[in-house]
Amino acid sequence: MLLNGVYVEDTFCEAFDAYVARVIITAYNYCLAEVAAKEMSGFATSIIMCPVEAGIERFLDYGETPDGRAGVSVMLFHPSKKSLQRQLIERIGQCVLTAPTANAFDGLEKEEDRFDVGNKLRYFGDGYEKETSVAGRKCWAIPTMEGEFVVENDFGIAKGVAGGNVFIMGETQASALSAAIAAVDSIKNMEGVITPFPGGIVASGSKIGGRKYTFLKATTNERYSPVLKNTVESEVPDNVNAIYEIVINGLSLKHVKSAMRKCILAATKVDGVVKISAGNYGGKLGKYKIYLRELFD
Amino acid sequence: MLLNGVYVEDTFCEAFDAYVARVIITAYNYCLAEVAAKEMSGFATSIIMCPVEAGIERFLDYGETPDGRAGVSVMLFHPSKKSLQRQLIERIGQCVLTAPTANAFDGLEKEEDRFDVGNKLRYFGDGYEKETSVAGRKCWAIPTMEGEFVVENDFGIAKGVAGGNVFIMGETQASALSAAIAAVDSIKNMEGVITPFPGGIVASGSKIGGRKYTFLKATTNERYSPVLKNTVESEVPDNVNAIYEIVINGLSLKHVKSAMRKCILAATKVDGVVKISAGNYGGKLGKYKIYLRELFD
Amino acid sequence: MLLNGVYVEDTFCEAFDAYVARVIITAYNYCLAEVAAKEMSGFATSIIMCPVEAGIERFLDYGETPDGRAGVSVMLFHPSKKSLQRQLIERIGQCVLTAPTANAFDGLEKEEDRFDVGNKLRYFGDGYEKETSVAGRKCWAIPTMEGEFVVENDFGIAKGVAGGNVFIMGETQASALSAAIAAVDSIKNMEGVITPFPGGIVASGSKIGGRKYTFLKATTNERYSPVLKNTVESEVPDNVNAIYEIVINGLSLKHVKSAMRKCILAATKVDGVVKISAGNYGGKLGKYKIYLRELFD
Amino acid sequence: MLLNGVYVEDTFCEAFDAYVARVIITAYNYCLAEVAAKEMSGFATSIIMCPVEAGIERFLDYGETPDGRAGVSVMLFHPSKKSLQRQLIERIGQCVLTAPTANAFDGLEKEEDRFDVGNKLRYFGDGYEKETSVAGRKCWAIPTMEGEFVVENDFGIAKGVAGGNVFIMGETQASALSAAIAAVDSIKNMEGVITPFPGGIVASGSKIGGRKYTFLKATTNERYSPVLKNTVESEVPDNVNAIYEIVINGLSLKHVKSAMRKCILAATKVDGVVKISAGNYGGKLGKYKIYLRELFD
């Protein structure tokens, strides 16, 4: 298929089940809310070696947040519910409770499966914490040096989808990268998805296990490495000198698909982009297969 | 002591020994280098529940970096050398190797105690990695989807100082916060120090252990909580309604002291700031005592 | 009236008729679109001495822009239609045509009153320009060093409203300023309004003419200057030490009123804010009177 | 000459005399200082149709500024001393006086040629202004709604150099642009120079006058337009599809040369860059000729 003159390969990405939580961080202003959100979603690109996958979902209008202040929502994904719960406690406790003027509310209110984040963090109040209510939500107000930190009693845990992805191939590194940045920007404030890698972009795709170093869980995906295209059996076209991957985690398969579609459309508008593809493991690993052509039916 | 009309308490902060590493991240431009640096230094405010304490030290001129590109240096601190080493591997592997156009070099070249970060990460190359040299440094070039990731073979591990701090007390929350932001900005690009908390600022100081909830390692420092000043034995002056803490980790005691001095000077220039103090545990815990008055001798 | 515990004075602001244009700047990504938008809307706080009043209205999704790229909309206001037209030519010609990857489209397509911006700028093409069509809009493609600059043939000119405003009074400068920042953030991406001053905030309100220096068009509004509250007949309450003004220009009175309401709500959430008011000239100058109490009916 | 594998043409740029002023804007923090600086340096790319050429020079440490706060320096250039003086008054008056917590000091103290900016702006105080001294500098404190605006009595006017430039040619638009961004970043905080165009980059170089439209002062430089390379007598190499120009204004020829050298070095590090050149008018217009080869002697 050709899209804006760019060849879109007839292939699919594999995606996986993962538990997801959504934290609404509010603060005096967007700058402060973002500071807490970035601290909270750092060191969270891939569960290969990070404790969780996380990222900023979007900026919320003052009218959308429980306490009527500036808001930023962060989503966290992990296939293990226990690990996700632990990370909620640790990251809200270390990165939001400590952040100037920040409060933390649940962003998945309708989920029945709930975890009592605030009810655990309140012990930091050492007996001085008080139950309170914000916009009808049960919260805890914990006395701190700046005043009070307000955190919701419990947070919803939903079943989401992780690992949706798009490959962007360019004639030059800068072209592939500019297209990747355009792709990430095109879903910057989209509801329901995050792109957990640095700036939303993966520079180093991996394959499962190792060919030579068999003791590793993941190693470089040499078939997609432009510098090796004349050395190994390669998937890199002759005119391609760099490939970037956008990894997308979402609340549902529908969210991930919609985001992939937007990313591909945006990427094909940048000159020097020659091919769009996606990453899969031959269909053996992921529960979900997302075919690129279906996105444009 | 009065400084710019603000009362500086005659007290001290306690500081601690910690191992430190410094990673120079380079990229096409500052924006991309910062993206990698922020991902790498997230979820790293305090080792109470974070795996490491980290932050951006400063932006390096193109002429200062081994590969002549835009640079950002990140420092990581941990009292356990093993934990620090593990975090170096995990954070460079997950947050820099994956980041667009980023390379990683050692920022403590003169340290004799070295840890072979690049020599471990190179296995991601699955046999396709190659030894290379950048500005005379032994490095590894690992083939990736974008091209090659270059990482230095080994990184210096030094003995640094963690936990230096300043308390800023204001008539209003906004005054104390504005002063805290000014304090952090005053050391923004200073060589040798980081402020690991969100935006460099701590909203929620803690005491060791718990009064009521004795099972906790750390709980709120109620003596410094303005909302409790009429409830508990309090250190909060009558006219103070918010307190922020700046925590400073540095390469040496001298670096930490110099940064504390700058922070205090900057904070006292903001209107509505009424007192500067510092946090200690009665002198029982920290190896180092830094007296505020000595900073202005 | 009390709002979130803050006194809102029963007064009104005066607002004025002004012509308005809206430019949609598109680019590879939001960062580049914003660079052009900021260059275009600089030196544009007040027509007292600036050639126009301008500001960023909002960020547009890729799906909202004519060429499917990242978009930022800028609005320009001037009571003189001629001056507005001239500024459109100069600012698009100097700040958007020159900006990397930027194009410029009309954001007021339904206006019948139109000005042929692109049809004038195309002469820069020196005969090499070509008529083209983007999403059904008549445009010109002008060859440049980077490739082509695309600009719409004509732009709508509407009748808007300028000078809507809110005064925020705080116990400390930092409190009033934090509230002003929160106010501006609360309408950051709102459709139909801009706040033309630096960061959206006015630090120095003015009165018409001069008391002592009668040769000036505008001088400081001493009745609202906290440092003069014991020197002149003052409107500054005893507990107020700083006042900031938010000036709002909008597509219609309704837009301005809606924005004022949001600003006031956001400002009253910041501690240390004690009073909200508005600026008027006794009702003698402005065509429109906007009563604060009406905003909350 | 080959530099990092990129061909640097043996040519020169022409540069011109221009008067220059340097304004040190200080504020509570860097964010606020930058807000004022950007407002002040907007609509200031080229005196072809802008009233002045301006840009941010660098960020100053707290210890470098007269009032010990965060500082940003802005430089303004104009061949007419009168025009420069008028712009100083208008831009400080409309963009810095109005900006939250901002003050304005002279950044060219040693210049004997001085213009009494503050002494003119003080009339805004309407008789309530007071002479004051900051770090030994004669200043005026003008009462405003936020408190007081402090502005230095007079500012130095120096003879600088405008129009230094570098052309960056790339295989793809994204490569040329990435290299241009790297070039600008490489002199981001360099003392003595600014890059007045949007983001420091020119997308649309111009020639003097017009070929077809002879009534224009400047039109597109068709010989450097990639889309016209098969239509006109072209300077665009076969493998070049985009060209960006970096225009550099500086305090002296030495400053401009040093900046050009850094820009070229940084640009040649980006893949897909194939040639570096510079813009001149056959040596007929500019007082100064800067040969690229001399930069690397």
Reconstruct the topology from this structure.
4 copies of one chain form a homotetramer.
Chain A: E1 2-3, E2 6-8, E3 12-27, H1 30-40, E4 53-60, E5 70-78, H2 81-96, E6 103-106, E7 114-115, H3 117-121, E8 130-134, E9 137-143, E10 148-152, E11 155-156, E12 158-170, H4 173-186, E13 193-194, E14 206-208, E15 218-220, E16 242-250, H5 253-267, E17 273-277, E18 288-291
Parallel strand pairs in A: 2-17
Antiparallel strand pairs in A: 1-2, 3-5, 3-6, 3-12, 3-18, 4-5, 7-11, 8-9, 9-10, 12-16, 12-17, 13-16, 14-15
Helix pairs in contact in A: 1-2, 4-5
How would you explain this protein's 3D organization?
4 copies of one chain form a homotetramer. Chain A is an alpha+beta fold and 297 residues long. Chain A folds into 2 domains: 2-14 and 160-296, 2-Layer Sandwich (Alpha-Beta Plaits), CATH 3.30.70; 19-158, Alpha-Beta Plaits, CATH 3.30.70. Chain A contains 5 helices and 18 strands. In chain A, strands 1, 2, 3, 4, 5, 6, 12, 13, 16, 17 and 18 form an 11-stranded mixed beta sheet that branches. A 3-stranded antiparallel beta sheet of chain A has the order 8-9-10. In chain A, strand 9 (137-143) and strand 10 form a beta hairpin. In chain A, helix 4 (173-186) packs across helix 5 (253-267). The longest helix of chain A is centred in the N-terminal third of the chain and has 16 residues, at 81-96. The mean pLDDT of chain A is 97.
* Largest sheet features of chain A: 11 strands, mixed
State the low-pLDDT regions of chain A, or none: none
The ordered H/E elements of chain A are EEEHEEHEEHEEEEEHEEEEHEE
Q: Tell me the strand percentage band of chain A.
A: 25-35%
Give the termini separation of chain A.
Answer: 11 Å
- CATH top level of the largest domain in chain A is Alpha Beta
Oligomeric state of shown chains: homotetramer
Tally the beta strands of chain A. Answer: 18
> Under CATH, the topology of the largest domain in chain A is which?
Alpha-Beta Plaits
For the largest interface, the chains and their residue counts are:
A-B, 80 and 80 residues
